[in-house]
Amino acid sequence: MGFQKFLWPPKLITRAMCRNITLFRPLQIAEEVNKLLDLKAQAQATFPNTDDVNVNQKFTLKTPKGTRDYSPEQMALRNSVLSKITEVFKKHGAVTIDTPVFELKEVLTGKYGEDSKLIYDLADQGGEILSLRYDLTVPFARYLAMNKITNIKRYHIAKVYRRDNPSMARGRYREFYQCDFDIAGTYDLMLPDSECIKIVCEILDTLEVTPYVIKINHRSLLDGMFEACGVPASSFRCICSAIDKLDKSPWDEVRKEMIEEKGLSEEVADKIGEYVKLHGNTDLVDKLLNDDLLSKNKCATSGLEAIKLLLKYCNIFNVADRVLFDLSLARGLDYYTGVIYEAVLLGDSTKGEDVLVGSVAGGGRYDNLVGMFDTKNKQVPCVGVSIGVERLFTVMEQKLHAASRKVRSTEVDVYVCTAQKDLVDERLKLCNELWENNFKVEYSYKKNPKLLAQLQYCEENSIPFAIILGQSEIKEGIVKLRNVLTRDEIAVKRTKLPEELLKRLADLNINGTVPI
Amino acid sequence: MGFQKFLWPPKLITRAMCRNITLFRPLQIAEEVNKLLDLKAQAQATFPNTDDVNVNQKFTLKTPKGTRDYSPEQMALRNSVLSKITEVFKKHGAVTIDTPVFELKEVLTGKYGEDSKLIYDLADQGGEILSLRYDLTVPFARYLAMNKITNIKRYHIAKVYRRDNPSMARGRYREFYQCDFDIAGTYDLMLPDSECIKIVCEILDTLEVTPYVIKINHRSLLDGMFEACGVPASSFRCICSAIDKLDKSPWDEVRKEMIEEKGLSEEVADKIGEYVKLHGNTDLVDKLLNDDLLSKNKCATSGLEAIKLLLKYCNIFNVADRVLFDLSLARGLDYYTGVIYEAVLLGDSTKGEDVLVGSVAGGGRYDNLVGMFDTKNKQVPCVGVSIGVERLFTVMEQKLHAASRKVRSTEVDVYVCTAQKDLVDERLKLCNELWENNFKVEYSYKKNPKLLAQLQYCEENSIPFAIILGQSEIKEGIVKLRNVLTRDEIAVKRTKLPEELLKRLADLNINGTVPI
């Protein structure tokens, strides 16, 4: 890892923003098609008799706005990415839970501020008033409070719903996956927090999307810094959200907003400006602990001490070189109460890629959310991270595309072909023998398929082996085993087939010639 | 397999009915709790000031009616069952797809008959009119028509939604999983159909829920039989749905319904009665092919020929002894056009279990559904099966419960403990070494946890190994490796730890002493 090699500080990009980065063509095409279908639907609504629909279908055949089907190839890639991520969670002893796709509307009320308008409501069909979940964090907090759970380490991978106006060409949808890992419980300072960072590193390493950097900061330090600079306490949150814009806007604009809209004096704004341009590691923490203004502020020093301990644990976990203490990191959500972090992919400049690809994970500590659901306001401290899996799917798709590799949507080992007519029973018999030996096997559902068509199917679907069965082979108790890629064929005794096949499949996997 | 050993014909049970069978106590308790919460919510709505809620939470903390959270233990069991099922689908070369949780309402309209009233609608928030999916078959047909796919073999495991009045004590919910496998494409007679049956057998065998029987029948045979008995063509479907009730009602009641409500003569009803009590195998098919009435009916003979071929393929696939040709099997859905089947679990009477446990899979051929979505009414023939995974989850839970086995909700290999104070850094260091060697490792998030508390955690969570680290071990470059179950401890050189741990974990798995 060596992000220090790249231009620094790069223009920082939040997850919200990175969802806007233009991706590759297939998505653009999909969006254009969807736009046209939307227009067609509108036209039909306006002029219902102008379309050529028949009795079978009086509406445009499409998925709802902002949603999509996932094809077998997309699903294969997603499942492969998600299973790698899940393995990391399991390595750290996490359990998984699931919650309903909808919640009582009241559960979501008052948790998302202005964004509440993006919540999908269900129709009132004479029962409870329900809404689709907007994220996985609020249902998690509801689950903890409802079941009086005071400590748990869990992951949850599921779809969430937002009535946004998404730009699908840019990879944003109204239905999308979230992938959250959280540790709830009353523990000692920075121990669960540092494991979250370790987990993000393991995930990004296992997906081989390096280089990346994990920026960290602390809400107490931000608050203490504001206080020390002379920001009135009532303005802390709104100044925080101004700072949060630094990843999209230059300092001058943010400064202007703080002065003209948020009412800070030029002097106070400039003091803040001096701090938020700082980033570094333990040396910077030590420098700030001796800073004239901050060293006198309890809030700031407690934040700095926490960061210092976090960096120490990151060092033990061998990830310190991937972590950057960055005072401009603010993160939008109000509910954070301690450490905050965000992982950003950096393009490989040696390959001429853009220096920044975008945010792929983010999170922090939120000690007061669960209490909002408890009648006695009992708190359960939490820290967690959300892995930006949609963004990672896209990055992995691009990587495969760049390497001209195709995703296999099945895992079939061998295809059983016949070379002559009227051998369907023999084909079924051999398939059954192979299934019973635990091989993944396909065959044609045509009674008398052409040999060429069968072999072509193998090539198109990257099936590594074909078995060819003819009258003479059956008589001799052998089969022809064909390597689909090299087209080499050998005769194998039928009794030896499972053994031979197992050996050859193992060879293929060792040599890594089977894609994905 | 030997269902012949049991009482036959047993009272047949459909999937719809088996969802009503009373299950075990935890679910009953859950329902009682939910009823009380419902009452509390009603009371609050009526007398809003009588409850002791505070500012933080003005509503009853619950999941929506008919839904539930899944705990870590439930999720572990579900994921284990689903991954075994998925392996079988993959063995047969199936791909997977996903579709949005909601569809344009029009997509669902006219597909479910009377049950349409159970569809969940989304609120009209100024866009398209949407509904939650009711099953996975209609979205699959929509997907095929929309993408002009004429052949695919896919599975789809996802939640569906029905505004039923579910009895949760009986395992019925408004949000539940479906697990569908379908083969679409124009192929030769009974080839894909028999593979569906083979797949159901492999799934039930791998889950070890034997004994079971797969009942089969054919819509053409039913239609031909009705015609031959003198039922007017316009009454075929409604007589079919009367026959479908034979699994819940005795013949006398069904006969009465056919005569008094459906207008059949007594003579016609009694002719039908003679047929629907028949069940057997190829011998029965041959007998019916020579039957006076049926042998003259084209529809009936084509159905019988199809069944005969299916039984032949089932024989090649080595599952013929698990298949029963049963003329009373009708299945409710209108859209079936060919073979229909249903798998029923039989209790083990030697163990004093009920003879019938219920239906766990069902399906059939539906050649006309995709055409309903195509503007040109282009058909894509389909055959498929839906695995009753919710029912299977319950059966597996009962089996574990009966065997007094606990489900592990994590897969942690080893827990790193310290025996003295101020060793947190050493614990983290060792954890990191083990993670880097790909072990699943946990440790306490307390800085100075008590040794007893750490070891207790291991026992409570069935973690097989604990490592104990103290000042003297660190100095000597060793660790104490403890078998949590036997409480045996040995000293291991730290450099040899990964090797030793790997060996001992492998031993555990071989001996099968680690639960699940």
From TrEMBL, chains A, B:
Q: Which UniProt keywords apply?
A: Aminoacyl-tRNA synthetase, ATP-binding, Ligase, Nucleotide-binding, Protein biosynthesis
Nucleotide-binding found in the keyword field: yes
Q: What CDD domains does this protein map onto?
A: HisRS-like_core (cd00773), HisRS_anticodon (cd00859)
The protein's matches in PROSITE patterns, at most eight in alphabetical order, are given as:
AA_TRNA_LIGASE_II
Q: Which reaction does it catalyse?
A: tRNA(His) + L-histidine + ATP = L-histidyl-tRNA(His) + AMP + diphosphate + H(+)
In this chain, L-histidine is annotated as bound at D135, L136, T137, R162, Q178, D182, R331, Y335, Y336
Q: Which Pfam families match?
A: HGTP_anticodon (PF03129), tRNA-synt_His (PF13393)
Uppermost EC category? ligase
GO annotations of cellular component type:
cytosol; mitochondrion
Name one molecular function that GO assigns to this entry. Answer: RNA binding
This entry's Enzyme Commission designation comes to: 6.1.1.21
GO BP: any one term? mitochondrial translation
User: What's the superkingdom here?
Assistant: Eukaryota
Fetch the PANTHER family from UniProt: HISTIDINE--TRNA LIGASE, HISTIDYL-TRNA SYNTHETASE
Q: Family per UniProt?
A: Belongs to the class-II aminoacyl-tRNA synthetase family.
The identity of this protein, by name, is histidine--tRNA ligase
- The organism's taxonomic lineage, starting at the top: Eukaryota, Metazoa, Ecdysozoa, Arthropoda, Hexapoda
Source gene? LOC115886082
